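Session log. Operator J.P. requested a structure for one protein chain; no other inputs attached. Running the standard single-chain path with token output.
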Amino acid sequence: MTSFAANVTWPTRTTAAASEPSPDIDALAIHDTHVDFVWKTLQRLGVRTPDLEDSAQDVFLVVHRKIETFDSTQPVEGWLYGICRRVAASRRRRAHQRREIVYRTVPDQRDEACDPEQQATHREAQDRLDAILDEIDDDKRVVFVMFEIEGLGCEDISVALSIPVGTVYSRLHIARKALQKAAARIELREQHDRATSTPPPSRR
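Structure written below.
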């Protein structure tokens, strides 16, 4: 699993430094403070790079409509995460037939400097990781991506997602086991595809 994750390219979004939330929080304050959290959460949930901007806008439209239902005694990140999950699920359904690579961005100079074989290896590893991640549920996927790909600690993940640290450990453990099984299934599927695509020897 780690070899796949090591080849992943993450797009980044440059924004102004987030301000501290005010006591009288509103939709605009939530946007200004948590736009990067929403952007990264959508990435972790498998939203394709070309869809990230529109998906983030969808999230904040929901925030604007539902702000009066938000319980200000609860962490806003947990509320936003739930909205991101629903938006991401809807976006993935609509993009099911599309072929963009998850987390892929416009190649930078480093990518262009790679030879074609390196680029092909990178794309293959990224495609396989995408396929494996698509086979686990969102909650476990997010924890796995944050820990294994982004390198965040379990305590940091606990704070970011507003969940107990024990839940982080549990989801990470389950995700690793599920991903191992998914990787094995995909490997068998690829072997079958290669075998069935090989033409039989010609007879003379």
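Operator note: Residues 2-197 form one domain.
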